[in-house]
Write a structure and sequence with these properties.
Layout lengths: L1 H10 L13 H14 L7 H19 L2 H21 L2 H36 L14 H16 L9 H9 L12 H8 L7 H34 L6 H33 L16 H7 L2 H15 L6 H19 L3 H21 L7 H23 L3 H13 L6 H7 L1 H15 L2 H12 L6 H15 L13
Length: 485
Amino acid sequence: MMTFLQDLQAAFTYSFEKPWFFTNYSFLLVFSLFLLGYALFNKNSRWKLAYLILFSLFFYYKSSGPFLLLFVGIIICDYFLSKALHRSKGWKRSLLLLFSIAYSLSFLLYFKYTNFFIQNLNVYFSTGFEARDIFLPIGISFYTFQSLSYLIDVARKEIEPSKNLLDYSFYMTFFPHLVAGPIVRAKDFLPQINQPLSLDNSVLKEAIFKITVGLTKKLLIADFLAKYVDLVHAAPEGFSGFEHFVAMYSYSFQIYFDFSGYSDIAIGIALLLGYRLKENFQNPYIAQNITSFWRRWHISLSLWLRDYIYIPLGGNRKGTFNTYLFLLITMLVGGFWHGAEWKFVFWGFAHGLLLILHKITAKKFQWDNWLLRFFGVLFTFQIVSLLWVFFRASSINHAFDSIQKMVAANNFLEFSSFLQARYEVFILLFLSSIIVFTPEGFKQKAIQRILSLPLILWPILLIIVLQLILQIRDESIQPFIYFQF
């Protein structure tokens, strides 16, 4: 009896150290029970929306505890600000929009960037401010951008404000994308509230397929690669240039399978609930250039930065120099959004320079030869992987040290001994390469064949895959990488 009560208490408590996420057994169990109740409601029932909102709030509470109150407060204020924006005109609307943007950003700036500014003030101006003990509410970067897009779209008259607080709360709290994206636009999601999908055989199979693929990406690939990556970056000075080289590629695959795995699970769960989220990844590592990469990687963020930073600045409408400048500013914002550290700023700056370089060279060179396209894919993957080092390293200095080792102290003759000592890393890298570099057409044909299987076979396939995950997966499940952003 005492054990049961302890388990029950644990189910309703939150943990900053161990946030609730899709790969937790407790989540899978509670979500299964939630689905049973969800199925009892009528398809278009308002009570069904309220039921889902309550579960979404509970989901957020399990990760961020008392910061749920902050989240709810932001939702309520946004709702009334959007109504005021819609009614206002001229300079009053502009002033109110500036206030709305400042209000939404204020929480993100405080929780995520306060200590960054304090540390840099102390370094560059010899001040003595003490860093504060601030917990970063999970998902605040994502729901802040979602809130901003809604308010700006209302001010631009691109969408009507939500007619009631229930609809807007549902849009903001919908738990599949709440803590790590995709960043959902109101104009894409709000129309679905009154027209949810029917859970027919095709939708059910697609949902199960997405969830299964996402769990496989996360638990069978990303978490295993994470063990080696963490080992190298925990003590970078103790590893050779070749081992850093392997860690670089391992992290490239880890972050892709981790984040795209989360997105797949989110899309699959949303389908089970009757709603469709847009794809967030489209085979990014087969991009032939850096511009194509950003059209394929974290698509919801790329489009957000384009529509709310790059185009409002002027886009490509104000001359060549300004176009390049706006690209650089946009990518700096994207880098800083990922984290309050100089390594992220540098990462964004480097990607901005690469985008500018591609715009310059694309006008002079035509990549219409299959061999050039092939080398374009290899070069793009290599440069993206190199910049991922700044994402994973503990600091910008450690990132440069790692790259220096790879360039100046790399001995590829270590491959044989590495293969003997860490053959499982090599196997995972080999399998990862096959998965990410397989042509898109072949992948789509394979997916269509799988989805064409009779529904009666799907429970069997799902049980086989889940059993495989249980047998092979790493015992220590890693949090999703983008939870920290």
